[in-house]
Amino acid sequence: MKNLYVGNLPHSTTEPELRGLFEAHGAVERVSIVTDRETGRARGFAFVEMTNAGEADKAVAALNGTDLGGRALKINEAKPKTDSPRGSGGGGKRFGGGGGGGSRDDYQGHARQPREPRW
Questions:
Q1: What global pTM score does this model have?
Q2: What does the mean pLDDT of the chain come to?
Q3: Shortest CA distance to 45 belongs to which of 20, 22, 18, 84?
Q4: Cα distance between residue 42 and residue 14, in whole Å
Q5: Domains contained in the chain, CATH given
Q6: Please, what is the angle between helix 53-63 and helix 15-23, to 10°?
Q7: Which tens digits make up the pLDDT trace of 19-63?
């Protein structure tokens, strides 16, 4: 079993179309075109799971760089998703404030200094 990443897909590509493209090189277990959660529109890439690793390698060699709908496909073995160092490295805490239960006044155990009034 081998999972392949297929990038630079035309947004109009369908699962049966992609399946047919890869089945010419071997048995296809599953095809999943990644869509935008909010709009439901295809995001331009997909994953194709092939039963036989040797056939998957042949499909990569045969199809990588080929034209589909005017776009050159980028195909390689899918890598497991890792915590990428994008952004500040917040580790998934993208939404909401703070977390951890501490308040802003807990600055490294030091007591907060009183401020002069602004007026």
A1: 0.67
A2: 83
A3: 18
A4: 9
A5: 2-40+53-77 (3.30.70.330)
A6: 100
A7: 999 999 999 999 999 999 999 999 999 999 999 999 999 999 999
